[in-house]
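User: I'm new to structure prediction. If I give you an amino acid sequence, what do you actually give back? Let's try with this one:
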Amino acid sequence: MTDLVTLTIDDRQVSVPKGTLVLDAAAKLGIEIPVFCSHPKLDPVACCRMCLVEISGPRGMMLQTACSVPVAQDMVVKTDTQQVKEVQEANLAFILLNHPLDCPICDKGGECPLQDQTMQFGPGLSQLVEPKRMKNKNYLISDTIVLDQERCVVCWRCIRYLEEWEDKPQLALFERGGKTIIDIQDGKPVDAKTSGNIIDICPVGALTNRVARFSYRPWEIERTPSICTQCSMGCNLRIDTRTHKLRRVIGRENMQVNDQWICDKGRFANAWVNDEGRLTMPLVRKHGELTPAPWSEALALVAEKLQALKQQHGADAIGAIGSAKLSNESNYLLQRFMRQLIGTNNIDHRDGGDVAALPTGMPALADVMKPQYGPDPKHDVIMLVGVDPSEEMPVLDVHLKRAVRRGKAQLVIVHPRQIELTRYNGPFLQANPGTETTLINGLLLALTVAKNDTTSEAHKLSAGASDRQVEQLCGVSMADVRKAAEVLAGAQNPLIIYGPMVARGELGAALRQALTNLALYLGKPENLAYIGLEANSQGCRDMGVLPDRLPGHAALDDRMASDLLGKLWGCALPVHPGKTYKQMLDAAGSEVKALYIMGANPASERPTWAENLDKLDFLVVQELFLTETATRADVVLPAVSWAEQDGTFTNLERRVQRAPKALGNPQSKAAPDWMILDHLATYFDAQWGHASAQAVTAEIAQAAPIYNGLTWEALGDQGLQWSVADHSYVQPELSYARAVQPDLPKADGGLTLVSGTVLYDGGNLFGLTKQMKNMAFGAEVHLNPADGEKLGAAEGETVTVRSDYGALKLAVKFDATVKPGLAWIPESLPNAPVGALLNGNMVVQVVVG
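Assistant: Good question. You get back a string of structure tokens that encode the predicted 3D arrangement of the chain. For your 849 residues, that looks like this:
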């Protein structure tokens, strides 16, 4: 039970937990004490002195800072005495001494604590007659953040956020007295990937959003609570709109997901929503050209062609590709369309059926976030396998840093690159790509030996991974492996996370089994988690956008699930598995005659897929822009963005969250993705009759038992997590089995190719936010300096990276985080599709000149 302390504030008694600050105790009584430096998410520093109140002590009542003094039994606090009022007025007078009176043009005007406190606690009249001191204005501290040093009240909030949460002390105080300023360290711009949060917590207009600057007035905007769709975290945010345009995005608090932080990509990279290049009406190919057409003509043509191809070649000659960037409602109706109206299980999404995933996601994000509430982490060891949160999920990265620094959690990292989180003192196993199964087997063997458990089944299964094999094949020293085994052996509640980078194909299936063996031996199989990287990676799986799974993860031969869906949809379901994403694209133009692609752009991933799409008898693309894939289509159906339609998304911990419609474009004839499919069904003589996205949400709750009760209304603004415990059939059957390392090709003097996701990839949508253009990765191949020297390549020099599948011309970037013998090329780089090199053997040659 929490110890309570009773004190008196302004002659009113209150009881609060021991350790509570006076500021928070007063708030419980509804008593406002003005603050600038204090923030509930930051450590107290008591530097602004606005919160001075009279507090009883050994020498009677004394002025003390309410934001830093903890309560004590029988303490007496006065917040409304004449002395307190005079101090508040004096502090505000000093703050305003050099503060510019530019409220009418300041982005913070109308929602500024300094304005509010000056009105409520200020002197009313200024005694200043001297000219104000001038400091830097419109000063870029990064590509996306503008600093006005004249407005700064030196509260240190920005400095403290970067130090306490990002662990990147990139801002500091300079000069002294009235000349004190906030500035960047050593002339280096702020590059923390969640740095935009300092704009939200700045109590004045000193830090402003360069992307949204001067594009809104706070009292004129409409505010819509929503979620971010840039990654699978599902961070909560608020969309501010006016006159049918998205004006800005700010963080929104959800203590189960993101606290109140969002990453810079989610905050700034949204110019594509307002872009004038968006598709506004359907396009139909006539005489070789895509020509505007009415919806009725476009939908009728789609139905006519698909029905004709089905009759001529059979249902399995048609496939559909969904998108983990789109809502549950849109993906659910796409798979229903294919299974009910076409009659095939050829339905998948990128990193869907081609990946050896688990259906249950992470147990709970709040367990990783726990260190902010107390010193003991829920997960004392967190193992990351082929996951780079700093690039893939920056807000998760922030919470992991917090868990390590405040909660004393330990990290064990398995990754071919030296990712940012390796700077903490946890074991780092830099395995060669594709050898992760052998490494995990060797780790399990070392773990059983450390526990003197050499008769266990786990020991027998991993006995083939000798020290020599681990060191030679994986390129990892056994000393590091034993260190990792020692850390895991002492774990009370370890969490193991792996991602799509190491889960694809035969390699992924073997690794999943090796990780299963490890999790079982640690006694925590429920803490083994696969996490997809896109906004609705979990939701796509939940919706059945997979060639071998129905909505709710039921198997195709699950009689109960088939009967439920058959009755709900009024049809008999196809029973044999369909083709995966890769299989459909590889077979496009041969076995697959037609594709319906919604929100995906496979033509940009691999040149051979682009060529195959050109060979199709019929291609339908549902998109926002005329992408590389859409330009090849016979029919293009214009969709609207996540901000312009209602929908739900399911994040990496199975939390289903609402993304309500925030704006519309009356000049456009584009439609929500789910609505396009609903109308298309009528051309197949199917009357689905969904009047709204909420109606589709209600149907999902019927079709997928794991979503039972998760109606639009029930989700609220914070979302709900579907429970694995309540639906035991969803739990994968995890059991010990031998994990066999697949054969790997020999490098033969070449380099092993590594790819992966980066936050600022310069992709089609990201590139439309011009202020972030310089932040994007260039078309580069990252090499260890030692490999560059061997090849005789100079940094910046253009080289040809060639495999037996294709070639790319890229500039050389020397990167010490890349292991010797590897070549790292990020995904989604503009005009540099790494898929041009992918052929399954991961070996490339780098040719200079």
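You can read the tokens as a compact description of the fold. Here is one thing that stands out. The first strand starts at residue 4 and ends at 9.
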